[in-house]
């Protein structure tokens, strides 16, 4: 009788140990979910050796700090074909219209908001064409034109700073270089044009018939 | 021992190569079909699997359908093994060798179908344990490889042992083959469950991800397999002097009946689940039974299968009808075809339709695919004919080991 | 399988400046030229491009027996039975490649060796060099992806860039990315979505959603592979060893996201269009009968670059980065936007999140 009892206890012991061995998945790499894994693993995060420098070094960038975010954006003034503006814009527009000066961008038509809301001087500084200006008249450098956009588009601005809006250039690795508003949106006509898709899969049609 | 084996091989070759005109015609016919199959396969090898009807949307087709069905046929041999060896029911003794021969043929066909379905048959050695990398126990496919090959081994070795003894005019020792037979009983259930798990374990395919899939595989296998055995036994009865008692056929008939009935009950249960409270997981079933968005390629197949299944089960259920051999054979053929459709096409193809994002791309096998399939079926029939012919000759006592002839040579 | 019909429409409506300058045969501009190249008899599939070495049966037999007899290494160095150093080398490469092991289980040296062999083989055959990498995952990196549904306009620049970057088969028009055009007001109704539209986009009353391999953290596809030819790397990429794959397509059946593709026939890429910057696990040339899939452009991402789809997207709908870096943009998206994933109930833990503005 006693013996039997002993055997039973032994068996219970074995089974417990076995089930512990099987059920306890205390492997280092097992997490309940991917978010847990990210959280746990990024606690000990230290910078990787991969950087974006190799891929962005040929770009002409400037460093900006907005709130808690510091990143690089492309330098703008060098890309504008006829900068500085005052090289031509030395007299008021009305006077320039009559002259035979270089016709740079007469075709600009403003399609941004509506005419009650915006006109040229909503952004351009009539007194100093080399500068932009905010609604309240504060001068804004062409390089930091995003400050102008952020006056109205504050939600997009938040997303852009964080990285949810816009494009990170070339590399996912730090330091981050982000395109600025005017790299994708024409400030005079900011919406995206509709166009035909780049590709069409003719095989897929057959497959579905 | 070795000389006995050599002599057995020689004698069976002799037996295989000689026979009636009908036999020769039959073998020539099978060889012809196999050659066609091989020709189709070389085309497939050269151009890739694009010569089949399979696409990225429906990536398994006729080959895997047949594979799935034949696993069932192979598993069914056990239904005869159990009573014969384990329960010592002598009635089945004659049938069981045939049943196991059928299992061997079915397994060879299974393996052939799997190889035919592979994109890279030349690197299949990657799958060999030891030389390659065997992803065991994670991949159910590796379980299936073990299960199928193990079952093949068991089903070759047991009959071989028995026939080898009989060939020498000795009785087979039950303590040698009974443990093997017992193992094969468990193994047969195993191969079918494992094959079902192959599909059942995929959360991506709700049509298969269904707890009843395994049990239903078993039920349908135990109907289709023995049904085929009845037909084959009937054929052997007419074409050779091998005696198979009416009793034996009737007993196997009962097995078929019970399995077919259980299979129907499970079908009802499945249909109820899919259609009483349909979720988006029921779309594949809708596609199968009623068609989806005007796509209804499987409708004629599945309804043929279901009506055949119903008629066959009904016929089998009544003793009077079942005991009439003509009706029994008819019902068995109906059942066999019905389950071939249901467990093949009706199971594999709807698993992929609609696709993961609801896209419906239908599947139709191409001529080449059908050619290869027919070729493999012919291969199975060929293998079975050879096995059966030898086994029958030994069992009839026409093939016996003669010491003098061997020593003279 | 005629090559004469037009395989796809490739319009070049801006936004692809790089292409315009780099290649004279970009299929968008000179279709005639491009397809005559397609049909030329020299056209070889990916496998042949690597392995097809001109060698008559006699020398092949000699080589095989010689290798068997005295070992492959000795043949190339000392044995004078066979003629021509180059063909000798080719034969040895073929031999070693045929019987090499699983990349996942190779040591660093073995990985280097196979990569060198493949690159050398390509050079011997075409006279051109490829840059084939075996770069491994870096510590503290876990790649993740976010897709902004409100931003995607359905232009398919990503699909195009992916095909060109990853050397996908042009004949079957294999594409890793699918863009689903969905009707407004119907929610995420994939059933009624069209993933093969061809009209001006964005279409009125529609929105667009892209799918590709989600590089699940708990991938069902790798689990089912009978030979471990596919696995998840330390940096989260789900990759395939094309040379080890046996082509059973079990992974394809197991993937709930339509993320995997199969080479039903021999993949073909016109020589001029081959991207020669390759990775063993990524865009190197494939052969028929093997699986392939999106690797987040492993050849680019491990080098620090964005995947081709991210770079090509003109609307910035695609965000890629290191999930372990608390300062990365992908982390900001996960923490500040309302993100979701597809079929989360399956427990596959995709590392591909969707969000809206």
Automatic annotation (TrEMBL), chain A:
Mind telling me which residue stretches traverse the membrane in this protein?
A: 7-23
**Which keywords, in A-to-Z order, does the entry hold?**
Membrane, Transmembrane, Transmembrane helix
Q: Which Gene3D superfamilies match?
A: 1.10.287.3080, Flavocytochrome C3, Chain A
Q: What is this protein called?
A: Cytochrome c3 family protein
Q: Which organism is it from?
A: Aquimarina hainanensis
């Amino acid at each position: 009788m006693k013996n039997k009892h002993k055997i039973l206890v032994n068996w219970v012991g074995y089974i417990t140990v076995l089930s512990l061995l099987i059920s306890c998945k205390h492997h280092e790499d097992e997490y309940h979910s991917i978010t847990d894994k990210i959280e746990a693993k990024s606690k000990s995060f230290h910078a990787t050796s991969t950087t974006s420098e190799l891929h962005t070094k040929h770009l002409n960038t400037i460093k900006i700090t907005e709130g808690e975010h510091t990143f690089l954006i492309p330098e703008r003034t060098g890309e504008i074909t006829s900068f500085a503006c005052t090289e031509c814009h030395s007299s008021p527009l009305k006077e320039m219209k009559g002259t035979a000066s270089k016709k740079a961008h007469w075709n600009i038509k403003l399609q941004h908001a509506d005419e009650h809301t915006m006109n040229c001087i909503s952004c351009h500084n009539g007194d100093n064409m080399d500068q932009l200006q905010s609604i309240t008249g504060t001068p804004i450098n062409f390089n930091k034109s995003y400050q102008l956009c952020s006056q109205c588009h504050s939600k997009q601005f938040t997303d852009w700073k964080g990285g949810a809006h816009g494009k990170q250039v070339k590399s996912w690795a730090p330091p981050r270089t982000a395109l600025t508003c005017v790299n994708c949106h024409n400030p005079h006509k900011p919406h995206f044009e509709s166009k035909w898709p780049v590709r069409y899969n003719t095989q897929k049609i057959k497959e579905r018939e | 021992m070795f000389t006995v084996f050599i002599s057995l091989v020689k004698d069976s070759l002799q037996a295989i190569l000689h026979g009636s005109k009908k036999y020769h015609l039959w073998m020539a016919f099978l060889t012809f079909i196999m050659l066609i199959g091989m020709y189709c396969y070389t085309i497939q090898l050269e151009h890739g699997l694009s010569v089949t009807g399979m696409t990225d949307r429906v990536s398994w087709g006729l080959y895997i359908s047949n594979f799935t069905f034949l696993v069932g046929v192979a598993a069914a041999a056990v239904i005869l093994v159990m009573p014969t060896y384990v329960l010592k029911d002598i009635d089945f003794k004659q049938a069981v060798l045939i049943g196991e021969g059928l299992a061997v043929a079915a397994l060879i066909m299974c393996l052939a179908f799997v190889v035919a379905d592979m994109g890279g048959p030349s690197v299949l050695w990657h799958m060999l344990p030891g030389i390659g990398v065997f992803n065991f126990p994670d991949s159910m496919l590796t379980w299936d490889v073990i299960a199928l090959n193990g079952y093949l081994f068991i089903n070759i070795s047991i009959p071989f042992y028995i026939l080898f003894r009989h060939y020498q005019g000795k009785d087979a020792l039950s303590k040698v083959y009974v443990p093997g037979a017992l193992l094969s009983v468990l193994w047969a259930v195993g191969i079918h469950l494992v094959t079902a798990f192959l599909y059942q374990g995929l959360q991506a395919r709700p049509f298969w991800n269904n707890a009843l899939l395994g049990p239903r595989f078993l039920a349908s296998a135990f109907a289709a397999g023995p049904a085929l055995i009845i037909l084959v036994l009937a054929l052997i009865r007419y074409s050779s002097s091998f005696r198979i008692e009416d009793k034996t056929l009737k007993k196997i008939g009962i097995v078929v009946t019970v399995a077919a009935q259980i299979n129907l009950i499970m079908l009802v249960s499945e249909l109820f689940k899919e259609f009483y409270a349909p979720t988006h997981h029921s779309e594949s079933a809708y596609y199968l039974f009623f068609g989806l968005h005007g796509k209804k390629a499987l409708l004629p197949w599945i309804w043929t299968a279901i009506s055949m299944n119903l008629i066959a089960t009904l016929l089998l259920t009544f003793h009077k009808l079942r005991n009439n051999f003509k009706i029994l054979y008819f019902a068995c053929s109906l059942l066999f075809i019905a389950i071939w459709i249901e467990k093949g096409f009706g199971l594999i193809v709807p698993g992929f339709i609609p696709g993961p994002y609801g896209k419906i791309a239908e599947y139709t096998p191409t001529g080449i695919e059908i050619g290869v399939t027919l070729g493999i079926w012919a291969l199975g029939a060929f293998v079975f004919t050879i096995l059966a012919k030898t086994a029958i000759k030994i069992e009839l006592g026409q093939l016996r080991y003669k010491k003098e002839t061997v020593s003279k040579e | 399988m005629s090559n004469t019909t037009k395989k796809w429409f490739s319009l070049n409506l801006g936004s692809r400046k790089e292409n315009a300058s780099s290649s004279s045969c970009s299929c968008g501009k000179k279709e005639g030229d491009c397809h005559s190249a397609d049909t030329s008899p020299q056209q070889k599939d990916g496998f042949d491009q690597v392995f097809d070495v001109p060698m008559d049966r006699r020398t092949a037999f000699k080589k095989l027996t010689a290798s068997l007899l005295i070992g492959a290494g000795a043949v190339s160095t000392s044995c004078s039975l066979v003629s021509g150093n180059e063909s000798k080398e080719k034969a040895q490469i073929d031999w070693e490649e045929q019987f090499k092991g699983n990349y996942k289980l190779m040591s660093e040296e073995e990985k280097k060796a196979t990569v060198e062999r493949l690159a050398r083989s390509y050079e011997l055959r075409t006279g051109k060099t490829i840059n084939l990498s075996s770069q491994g995952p870096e510590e503290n990196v876990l790649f993740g992806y976010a897709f902004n549904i409100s931003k995607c306009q359905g232009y398919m620049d990503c699909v195009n860039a992916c095909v060109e970057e990853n050397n996908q088969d042009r004949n079957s028009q294999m594409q890793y990315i699918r863009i689903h055009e969905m009707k407004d007001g119907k929610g995420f109704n994939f059933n009624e979505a069209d993933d093969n539209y061809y009209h001006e986009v964005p279409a009125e009353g529609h929105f667009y959603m892209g799918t590709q391999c989600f590089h699940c953290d708990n991938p069902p596809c790798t689990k089912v592979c009978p030979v471990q030819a596919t696995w998840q790397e330390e940096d989260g990429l789900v990759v395939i060893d094309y040379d080890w794959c046996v082509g059973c397509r079990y992974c394809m059946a197991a993937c709930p996201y339509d993320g995997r593709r199969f080479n039903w026939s021999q993949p073909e890429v016109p020589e001029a269009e081959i991207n020669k910057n390759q990775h063993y696990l990524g865009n190197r040339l494939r052969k028929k009968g093997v699986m392939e899939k999106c690797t987040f452009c492993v050849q680019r991402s491990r080098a620090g670059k964005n995947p081709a789809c991210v770079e090509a997207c003109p609307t910035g709908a695609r965000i890629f980065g290191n999930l372990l870096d608390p300062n990365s943009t992908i982390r900001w998206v996960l923490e500040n936007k309302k993100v979701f994933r597809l079929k989360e109930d399956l427990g596959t833990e995709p590392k591909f999140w969707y969000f809206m503005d």
